[in-house]
Design goal:
Length: 127
């Protein structure tokens, strides 16, 4: 947080710990209410070790594992958008529907990025 002089307040270990706890609350909330997130975590737990094993070097390993983390990040953000839209009201609104569709599209694009990276890294080796 910046003060009036434009400098940032120092981060105390307590503030860093509190930020970590809030992040864990967010992950727990996403886990509790989003079955898609749970499925993506399960896929990550299978595919990340596989990607680490199949990657020939650090760059390939990063290209196989990082997009999997990207899917989880996008799913958490999509869940946050959905929660805000649902909080605003249950009635149908064009903009609310558009926001939810855009969040879903972001998850889809993250999934396609996984397929693209895995295909480009492993495709030439195995096909």
């Amino acid at each position: 947080m910046a003060d009036s002089s434009g400098t940032h307040a120092p981060r105390s270990p307590f503030r860093v710990w509190q930020a970590f706890l809030w992040s864990m609350q967010g992950l727990r909330a996403t886990w509790d209410v989003e079955s898609a997130f749970r499925l993506e975590v399960y896929l990550f737990l299978v595919l990340a070790p596989l990607g680490l094993w199949l990657g020939a070097d650090g760059v390939e390993r990063a290209l196989l594992v990082a997009p999997l983390l990207g899917v989880l990040v996008v799913e958490v953000l999509n869940s946050a958008v959905e929660a805000v839209v649902d909080r605003w009201g249950p009635e149908h609104h064009e903009l609310a529907g558009r926001a939810k569709d855009m969040g879903s599209a972001a998850v889809f694009l993250a999934d396609m990025n996984v397929l693209l990276c895995w295909g480009l890294v492993l495709g030439p080796r195995y096909f």
